[in-house]
Amino acid sequence: MTMMQAFEWYVPDDHKHWKRLLDQIPQMKATGIDNIWIPPGCKASSPSGNGYDVYDLYDLGEFDQKGSKGTKWGTKDELLALVEKANEVGVGIYWDAVLNHKAAADHKEKCRAQEVDTDDRTKTISDPYEIDAWLGFDFPGRGEKYSKQKYHWYHFSGTDYNADNNKTAIYKILGDDTKGWAKSGDVDGEKGNYDYLMFADLDYSHAEVEKDVLDWGIWLSKQITLKGIRFDAVKHFSEDFLRKFITQMDKVHGEGWFFVGEFWKDELSDMSRYLERMGKKFSLFDAPLVYNFSKLSKTENADLRTVFDDTLVKTEPVNAVTLVMNHDTQPYQALEAPIEPFFKPLAYALILLRFDGYPCLFYGDVYGIKGEHPFPPSCGGALPNLVLARKLYAYGVQRDYFDYATCIGWVRYGTWDKPSGCAVVMSNAGPGEKRMHVGEMHAGEIWTDVLGWEKGEVKIEEDGFANFVCPGTSLSVWVNKDAEGREKFGKFDDDIYKE
């Protein structure tokens, strides 16, 4: 299986995203994209909000709230049309669930709070005092349809703004003896206790909060046919609640859901412990692998053989979602581990054409990035060809040729029903060459590079070996020139914004 994050941060704010994705679904499926992770479709703080500034979980673009009926991505009817088309062609939908916080409250409420140290949230830096904070959520446009629950100050554990003195800080909301940050071990221990991330932080120790969000999960799955959920910011909210949520979804709708969490951290041990606590019914994005890609791409003559050192895909391959970029790792921002453009094709080949991990494409690498600093599709537009190579040829036993620092390769031998196999060779220095074994059954065949970056031909010798080459700082994917599906390469249309 192959998944794609089907958005990027700077998708045009024209409310046509659901429509554009609908038109692309057949092409995605034909190329080898089996499931798409769509952006947060709940009403945000404004018509331009990407959904991580979530206002109302129960508004999927149906009610006139926060300046529009639809979300940035489109209306609920357009979302349902997208899902129907995806189901028709066999592409699964993964929902992006933002459950840590709420934004854009409808009114202010007074409550007692204490300021805490931004670098250690267990340390208070003020006496308790009354603040006036944006913590009242009435959802006037929706009323009580779908849920009667309204939110008040006591449903939150923290906030970041006091309207009384216009001060921005991290405020721990005070109440009864149970009020405070999530208990130690229930959220990540970074910054002492990483319960608070942004906006109005939901308090999952409050029974009404827990019930409303659990009810929302059931409601959502009845509104939309889903194959899975991507959970935003899982290291910031209750693990105990998340286990309840997952257990409930399995109980009500049957097992087989795919659940993946954003636990963005380069500490592999913390990620492995989290998976263990979640009972391995969960996956995480392989952030350490992205950091490795970044480091290798920025180091001259870096040792490619170390690419999988201390990564989730190496230690927990069944629970690792491998990726190269996502909406938080833009190439022009000093954020999480940007990767040099020349290395993108190598990185994608390393997640798409190998056995372990569940690879995730990034919309911005497939279709390009908009905004003030636009970027064209990465990999010279060849990323869809790598996906297609995965779909057609990346099967069977894998043999690695990781025997030289700046030039590595591997072979996939194929299976009885997918017999073609493939040979991959890449270099982060000068032109590369590997003598690799693809199998005696291929003796006499002529193999060529499906990417077209290496123009020559290779004849497989009687013993099943051949010398495979690649251009400098590039790669080649070698397959029998007469293999089934070779005529399908180079057909992907990445102009998603054409009228």
UniProtKB/TrEMBL annotation:
The entry's keywords: Carbohydrate metabolism, Glycosidase, Hydrolase, Metal-binding
InterPro entries registered for this protein in UniProt: A-amylase_thermo, GH, GH13_cat_dom, Glyco_hydro_b
Cofactor: Ca(2+)
Domain (Glycosyl hydrolase family 13 catalytic) ranges: 1-390
Annotated GO biological process: carbohydrate metabolic process
Top-rank taxon: Eukaryota
GO molecular function, one term: hydrolase activity, hydrolyzing O-glycosyl compounds
SMART domains noted in UniProt: Aamy
NCBIfam families: PRK09441.1-1, PRK09441.1-2
Family, per entry: Belongs to the glycosyl hydrolase 13 family.
Protein name per the record: Glucan 1,4-alpha-maltohexaosidase
